[in-house]
Amino acid sequence: MTAAGVAPAGPTPGAFFAAGAAGWGFGGLAAALALLPLVVPDYQQVFVAEILVWGLFAMSFAIVFGFGGMLSFSQAVFFGMGCYGFNLGTLYFGFNTWGAVVSAVLAAALLALPVGYIATRVRHHHFLIVTVIISVLVTTVLESGHWRWIAGPYVTVSLTFVPEVPLGFTRFSFIDEWVAYYFTVVMVAAAFFLAWRIVHSPFGRAMLAIKDNEMRAQMIGLNVNKLRWMLFVLAAGIAGHAGALYALLARYTNLEFFHWIYSGKAIVMAMIGGVGSLVGPFVGTAFYMLSTEYLSRYFQQFIIVFGFILLLVVRYAPDGIWGMVLRGARGLGRHGQASKP
Asked: Which of 59, 81, 273, 290 has a CA positioned 20 to 30 A from the CA of residue 151?
């Protein structure tokens, strides 16, 4: 009982129903991903793996925007740094696959330290402008012949060997598509689980408090700039992780991955699915990639048709497709509870 003599309200039946539906949904998705190679051809396995990689990239934006309120156009820079770090670890230092993935995450996070320190000191549209400038600056420097020595030959690279994953006393070769698929699924799932634990930790709740009301967060003693900086670096590391997985899957990296246009794609995919959760970006990425794949067969300028679809989603589902699904699940839960005698 509270001081007023009224028991605090607990979770609503709709919330319980939505949580149960989400649990069953995750279980079903895990089973489907595990059994997928048994029922689909190799090229479709690779396509699903690409959806997961780009979904992880979009999730890095959802973390920095949906949980931190920072509209970042620099996520592509960290995705590109992940590709660069992977190539550097593999081709220069001779790391195996595990070491190259770690070097990719470190490369993205190390670049995010100074970038984030500068960007997180400003707010609102100033933050957006700073991240666009940084993205354009990095791309321009890497494209210029005079400064190309900074990145060396490790930005635009085609892997001349088949990657292998050492595991104990054996090695699994990416020459088998199922190895590439399962490795991608496991690595994306690990990154998702880590992100989920972080955003549901006291740190994640502090970030939501800062996003909701920065002045109140400062008044209760939160170091706003430091926490925003930490979240920015975390999201950059996840983007770098996605870059490494793409380099492994496609066996090819390009300078264009640093361009802010790829940040725009991450924003679109995350907004379609919903930036208020970690699942939404994957839903939005699947919708984006599947719709563009099939629309391109029937429309030469399919991006225009997709633009209309995007407008409809933003207008009628502002919290994204996943948010709309959760709202429907909660509504069904409340309706079922109300119908009981």
From this structure: 59
